[in-house]
Design goal:
With about 90 residues, the protein is mainly α. It has helices spanning about 15-35, 45-70, 80-94. The chain is built from three helices and no strands.
Amino acid sequence: MNFYRTSHEEPRRDYREDELFITIESLRSELLEVAQERSLSDHTVVELSQRLDGYIVLAQNKMMESLRSRQNEDVPYGKITKSKRIRSKAAFQQ
């Protein structure tokens, strides 16, 4: 599978998580193959590396969004959040 393309193209922003990780793994494999055949400073190697970096950043952003959305969900009745524990601890120390 050849994922090489020009640098002006951006990765899609609507990737599902599984698609994104398959793309990352495919690009990683291709990058390793090309890098073994060519110099690490070769234009193709650099382009593939930059493209892979873009997908990795996209995956990290999606993971952070998911984490933030889980943290912002309503806390079930009776559960104490970390911020409440910190405030309670501060009140005890006064």
